[in-house]
Design goal:
The protein has 15 helices and 9 strands. The protein is α+β, with helices and mostly antiparallel strands.
Length: 505
């Protein structure tokens, strides 16, 4: 459980501000109300020295007019992952809006402020003005304050709207906050908000933002908390990729980024397997696999579309016009709508928040005395040996076997990159895995496009479309043949790098 001076809250952005009026009518909140909703207007001023001493020290100083009272708050050590914000916080009543160091003389924040500000005057940076509706809700043994904030951030002559839901832990478990958030986003159109109002205001004011995400665990940390912290950080990366995906309206680049981040999350979940009870681990992977597979159709269409554009750029113009490109674009639009149905309406966000809540409940783990470094080295060595065995007798013509090799290589590479090892042997191994993955990717794409065209053409009678599809299959087949020629040397370089990596353990 967080300490008494630690704030734990989940921030969620309303996708439609008008929905703020009925958030407390959603069953997730309405059925759990411990107090009736109450309304208030909050005006908050943020302060710092002219040199930005508090920001450089990771401190936030604000004074808020709340229920007719002036309250000063200092927040420190900001950490955020996937919208869950955890910070040390101290709040004291004050007599007015003037900031003073001695407001916090009797708290642990006092020395922090004095050291960061060096007694320099504190000046206003920006302010927020918003209407808050809040109520306490009960989730099991936990008490959570739910709030809907609607208003404005003001920085000089710039403004930005506030339309968000906050779930702040008052008593109990952080897992309860995430579980409640997962349920709520299934009922109200919400997205995770990774930035606090303060950090949004910093960006609006074009001031340097020194906020950092959760630090990477150290190699000597215990294995279980170390691996879980990596998984939590990666959940945040997936949520950020999904936010970019929705903002970019599901472009090819955004879809690919989302797939990669989901694959990284699955890799870290696989890394944790010996530490997790079998039934819970199977549940993890089933949920994550379903999210990944939902993107398969769009990704397949993007691969075909990119190959088509590449072919057109390299070849003489086709006559009559190349209708296949238009049909591929239409099919991609249909698949994108299906993907939105599979991941949208809070489905992906809810799944990941619920997954995260189960990570925190601590009920399905096996203990180990290993450090993170020792545990990860043992797991990765085993994966590399499996990979070497998989590829030992594979022919460059065995498309299915090469695909299994490609997936296994991704798992190893993404785990290595997440662990962040910077030694030369690991860098070389990652580079060789990336090289092998690129080679195998071209082979896989050629086979995928040929199979997709075969399925797709069964519903089209146009000879022009069949001609274009044949040209595309031939073009990608040539790229696949070139990649097959590169496989043997790429495999040899990978095996050498893997042998050296394992030898140095």
């Amino acid at each position: 459980m967080p300490g008494l001076d630690t704030e734990v809250e989940l921030k969620l952005r309303l996708l439609s501000p008008a929905d703020g009026a009925w958030v407390f009518d959603a069953p997730a909140l309405a059925a759990r109300l411990a107090t009736p909703p109450r309304d208030e207007r909050l005006e908050t001023w943020y302060f710092d020295t002219a040199a930005g001493g508090l920001r450089d020290a990771g401190l936030t100083y604000r004074i808020r007019l709340e229920d007719g009272r002036w309250m000063a708050t200092v927040k420190a050590d900001g950490v955020s992952a996937g919208g869950l914000h955890q910070r040390r916080e101290w709040t004291v009543p004050v007599g007015g809006p003037e900031p003073r160091y001695d407001h916090f003389a009797a708290t642990e924040a006092g020395p922090l402020l004095t050291a960061a500000g060096d007694d320099e005057p504190l000046a206003p940076l920006f302010r927020t003005v918003f209407d808050r509706r809040r109520a306490d809700v009960a989730v099991g043994d936990s008490r959570i304050e739910a709030a809907v904030d609607m208003g404005t951030i003001v920085a000089g002559d710039r403004e930005e709207p506030i339309a968000e839901v906050e779930l702040e832990l008052k008593e109990g478990s952080a897992a309860a906050v995430l579980a409640l958030g997962a349920e709520l986003v299934r009922q109200v159109p919400l997205a995770v908000e990774t930035r606090s109002k303060f950090h949004r205001a910093l960006a609006l004011a074009e001031l340097d933002d020194g906020w950092q995400a959760a630090p990477r665990p150290e190699p000597e940390d215990a294995a279980l908390p170390g691996v879980l912290s990596l998984i939590v950080a990666q959940i945040g990366a997936v949520l950020a990729a999904y936010e970019a995906f929705t903002a970019a309206r599901g472009t090819a680049a955004a879809t690919h980024r989302l797939r990669v981040q989901l694959r990284r999350l699955r890799s870290l979940a696989a890394l944790a397997k010996p530490l997790v009870e079998d039934a819970e681990y199977d549940r993890w992977q089933a949920e994550l696999r379903a999210l990944s597979r939902a993107t398969d159709g769009v990704r397949e269409a993007d691969v075909a579309g990119a190959a088509w554009e590449q072919m057109l750029a390299a070849c003489p113009p086709l006559t009559p016009p190349p209708w296949l490109g238009l049909m591929l674009a239409n099919d991609r639009e249909r698949l994108a709508a299906e993907l939105d149905g599979a991941l949208g309406q809070g489905r992906l966000t809810a799944t990941l928040l619920a997954f995260w809540a189960r990570l925190l409940d601590g009920k399905a783990y096996r203990s180990t005395d290993n450090t993170l470094a020792a545990f990860a080295a043992d797991r990765l060595a085993g994966w590399l040996e499996e990979l070497r065995g998989t590829g030992r007798d594979i022919s460059a013509e065995d498309v299915d076997g090469l695909h299994r090799l490609r997936i296994g290589g991704k798992k190893v590479r993404y785990a290595l990159e997440s662990l962040g090892a910077a030694d030369r042997r690991t860098k070389v191994l990652v580079a060789r895995l990336r090289e092998l993955q690129d080679c195998l990717g071209h082979i896989h794409d050629a086979a995928t496009i040929a199979a997709a065209m075969d399925r797709w053409l069964s519903g089209h009678a146009s000879r022009v479309v069949h001609r274009d599809a044949g040209l595309l299959i031939g073009w990608t087949a040539r790229l696949g043949v070139e990649a097959r020629g590169e496989f043997a040397p790429a495999w040899k370089r990978f095996r050498r790098a893997a042998r050296r990596w394992r030898k140095d353990l």
